[in-house]
Amino acid sequence: MENKKFSDLKLNSSVLKAIDDMGFEEPSKIQAEAIPVVIDGYDMIGQAQTGTGKTVAFGAPIISKIKDIDEKEGVQAIILTPTRELAIQITDELTRLSKYARVRVLPIYGGQSIERQMRAIKRGVDVIVATPGRIMDHIKRKTVKLDKVKFLVLDEADEMLDMGFIDDIEGIIKNISGDRQTMLFSATMPAPIKKLASNYMKKEVKHIAIIKNSLTVERIQQFYFEVKNKDKFEALCRIIDVEEPETTIIFCRTKRGVDELVESMQFRGYNVEGMHGDMSQNQRINTLKKFKENNIDFLVATDVAARGIDVHNVSHVINYDIPQDMESYVHRIGRTGRANAEGIAYSLVTPREYVMIKQIEKFTKSKIRRKEIPTIDDIFETKYNTLTDKITKNIEKDDFKKYIPFVQKLDDEFNLVDVSAALVKMIFDKEMGFDYSDDDKLKSDESVRLFFSAGRKDKLTVKKLLEFIDNASGVEGNEIGDIDILDKFTFVDVPERLRDVIIRTCDGKKLNGRKVNIEVAKSKKKSK
Questions:
Q1: pTM above 0.70, yes or no
Q2: What are 141-152's pLDDT values in tens digits?
Q3: Which of 164, 192, 267, 383 is the most buried (most CB within 10 A)?
Q4: Phi, psi dihedrals of residue 255, rounded to the nearest 5°
Q5: 496: buried, middle or exposed (CB in 10 Å: 19+, 13-18, 0-12)?
Q6: What string of H, E and C letters represents the secondary structure of 345-405?
Q7: CB neighbours of 244 closer than 8 A, spacing ≥ 6?
Q8: CA–CA separation, 58 vs 157, rounded Å?
């Protein structure tokens, strides 16, 4: 499967164009293996972890095949998924994939107006992404017909079964034609999943298992910065100006992103070059040579281009864009922390991408700690300390005597403290990579720590708590910060703007069978 391109996978040209816009240079393992199988019409079981690119694995071929249907009538595909959060995530991805195919995608989940969903269904939809409970409501109300469905996807099937959706799933399947093409994706294959496959999938089903690679991130310190998308470049400059890293690889998701970031950084005086798949082999070799020989400080690259990078002294890896799958994240940060050295990995994360950080933590079994974006005072302090160190070393060298007469002339006209300050300003103006805005403009929402009167002894889990908050208040999991579940109670970090709505809608409701009290905790946990 090495070096396969999306263009090798029999996809419709409109879908290939959308994938190119999304910036994916080549398919992940599950995509390379699953897409041809789905295109050829087979039922399929895909055994793969969350974050391996499964949505494109089933979405790209389904949209390709729907696009090629001359006369579409009714719902053509339905994707069942365990949570509202995942339904939204899948819908966003499918919408981008269908950009040029004119395939209409609709999410259906609890917590959203069912009347609004009815109106959307009535206007016409090709693909429904739904949680089992809510789509069953529509089936019972006879507001949706699934008899024309040609493609059924069960995503995160083991999670849906764990959440008790088996009866709903079977009820939904019974409303779909037996002539459909069925795809089942699951990280694990317990007996109930095998039974489900045996009962509802064709005998010639194809089984694709993606083996999880060994992960080596122990020697890498991982952090993330939460930042609005429009502020990403300024945040990057602030981080660089405070950290002053020696040798850094910065990852972008797309070739265009690499070119734009390199241009912006060079304009502000950073010593940087880029690498991506559209560059000639000679260009890439020359750039890599400069990077290895420390003739450039920053290398901006896509995942594909970075495969040829074998440099042992990389101090920092920065994910300017979060990658499309977990294994790419591991490969990226693995560029640092080599040869028994410690490395540092930073990720710039928009609020909508926060859930990806939690998925990466679970996948890598490691902690990614939150850091605040450096302030202007932080930058000035770093520059001051660096400059002081350089001045001290030059004084110790004692090789500046020929410049004393020049300074003595300045001393006749000006105060030497003023002269020194002017020189420092000149140096700072030259070294500051960005005309920084006020610190407040880059601040993410202040967080508040809430106390929940339920804990491990109540069989509370993070998943159940997030579902409880989502169902009661409509606040999605990606808005919630750190969660600490103790024996009898739990602490939850939430944005200040969501504090009142969560307390108002969740306090006094039953969580795992008992009434839960919620209040602002007496002390707020500090970010590390």
A1: no
A2: 999 999 999 999
A3: 383
A4: -65, -40
A5: exposed
A6: EEEEECHHHHHHHHHHHHHHCCCEEECCCCCHHHHHHHHHHHHHHHHHHHHHHCCCHHHHH
A7: 382, 386
A8: 14
User: pLDDT of 24-62, one tens digit each?
Assistant: 778 888 899 999 999 999 999 998 766 668 899 999 999
Cβ pair 208, 44 in contact under 8 A: yes
The rounded distance, in Å, linking the Cα atoms of 510 and 513 is 6
**Whether residue 470 sits in one domain with residue 350:** no
| Rounded alpha-carbon distances, angstroms, from residue 148 to 38, 39, 171, 448 | 18, 19, 16, 48
Length of the chain: 528
Rounded CA-CA distance 297/248 in Å is: 6
Distance CA 130, CA 87 (A): 6
526 in a structural domain: no
In this structure, the strands spanning 127-130 and 77-80 are parallel
Residues 452, 385 share a domain: no
Structure tokens at 324: 């499309």
Which of 40-44, 239-243, 444-448, 451-455 is predicted with the least confidence, judged by mean pLDDT? Answer: 444-448
Note down the domain range covering 405.
376-431
Sheet holding 206-209, edge to edge: 105-108, 127-130, 77-80, 151-154, 181-186, 44-47, 206-209
